Amino acid sequence: MLAAERGAALNTLAAYRRDLAQAEEAIGDLAAATRDAVSSLAGEWASLAPASVARKASALRQFFGFAIDEGWRSDDPSGALPQPLLKRPLPKVMRHEQIAALFKQAEDEAAGEDPKAVRLLALIELLYGSGLRATELVSLPIGAVPRDAPFLTVTGKGGASRLVPVGGRALEALGRWFALRPQVPPSRYLFPSGKTGHLSRVRLFQLLKELSARAGLDPAAISPHVLRHAFATHLLEGGADLRVLQTLLGHADISTTQIYTHVDAARLVALVNSRHPLATRATSD
Predict the structure, then answer these.
(1) Catalytic status, residue 225
(2) Which of 81, 124, 186, 212 has the least C-beta neighbours within 10 A?
(3) Which range in 8-17, 53-62, 84-93, 149-158 is most confidently predicted, on average pLDDT?
(4) Cβ distance 212 to 218 under 8 Å?
């Protein structure tokens, strides 16, 4: 149902499968599990982070709803699942000077036209310059890069497609990569790999952390998703509209995009202090 009706991504399907299998190992057949058995999962999950508990509980709630629709169950025991209070974590954001250091290192290494160095430069240009998810980036087909327009056609979560603009720097890096990209064996992917057809997400994480270390940055604080966060945050700082940012990031719900507005708080305070009519009035004794 998740795959056919909701178009869930492969990573999402794998996570749901894993969560349901682990729950079934703990309490037995989920289609026949009693409310007390479902309630006991709170103890099984006691050592997990609240976000992990919430994800597992969500998977089970959706499963029980599906079981009722299919006639496997007549009752819904999901009310016995734990409901942890969650605080949405603020995204990690790279400062502008950190971005500059990372790109300087990548550009210096790519100056010698080493294919791997040029590929890495193209990868980070697209992560930071277009805000792509790691999976979206590594699985880009060659056809996603039109030769006559500065846009990428990206397939995101749930199979939804969107057009993402590509800046001049990224286009230049892609042009260099096209000239050096291996042609044998032939591949339909922009960043091919002999083992999986395209560069893996894990390898992208490794390459970025290794580059961070060479640039004198903390590798633990930098990942492909942190560069995506930086893309969104820095666009907002520059005055981008939240709805436009939602489209660029491929968020289905604008509430997901709104998490980035926290970084603009200082700018908004300065704006109020400088533009509000009362800001120019002297305070009376």
Answers:
(1) yes
(2) 186
(3) 53-62
(4) yes
Cα gap 10→251, rounded to integer Å = 17
Tokens of 229: 């966060």
| Distance from C-alpha of 271 to C-alpha of 11, rounded to nearest angstrom | 42
**Catalytic pick from 162, 169, 201, 225?**
225
Catalytic residue among 119, 133, 181, 198: 133
Looking at the structure, do residues 109 and 17 belong to the same domain, yes or no? no
Q: Answer whether 33's CB lies under 8 Å from 27's CB.
A: yes
Residue 125 structure tokens: 């240009």
pTM: 0.64
Contacts of 160 by beta carbon, 8 Å cutoff, 6+ apart: 7, 250, 252
Q: How many CA atoms lie within 13 A of 256 on its CB side?
A: 10
Give the pairing type, strands 151-155 and 192-193: unpaired
pLDDT of residue 211: 96
Tell me which residue of 36, 88, 34, 84 sits closest to 58, measured CA to CA.
84
Let me know whether 116 and 212 are in one domain. Answer: yes
- Tell whether 136 is covered by a domain: yes
The single residue of 119, 228, 229, 234 carrying the catalytic annotation is 228
- Check: CB of residue 92 under 8 Å from CB of residue 229: yes
Asked whether residue 36 is assigned to any structural domain, the reply reads: yes
